[in-house]
Amino acid sequence: MVKKQTAGRDNLGEFAPKFAELNDDVLFGEVWSRAAEMPAHDRSLITVASLLTQGVPQLKDHMRIAKENGVTKTEMVELITHLAFYAGWPKAWSAFGYAKEIYK
């Protein structure tokens, strides 16, 4: 079961209420909760891969979520190593910094 997400409302609820609602209720509420179609573990791997290739700050948060969803250190290291050749070496270095902190 996916944990109820409130980050949108907590961070943007007053400033951008519709965006906050879509983040919490649609993205994390409806899409992430479709475990029968794809488990959270796999969604996390895909999400981390996508964010790593883009080099966005949300990568670290989603790596934490991935760990909570059962993604192992070995899987995370392999994902980053594999993507280093496709997304870029500097992005992989940055991702390893986050992964070391999260999986210590």
UniProtKB/TrEMBL annotation:
Coiled coil: none annotated. Residues 17-101 form the Carboxymuconolactone decarboxylase-like domain. GO terms for molecular function: peroxiredoxin activity. Pfam families: CMD (PF02627). Gene3D superfamilies: AhpD-like (1.20.1290.10). This is Gamma-carboxymuconolactone decarboxylase subunit-like protein.
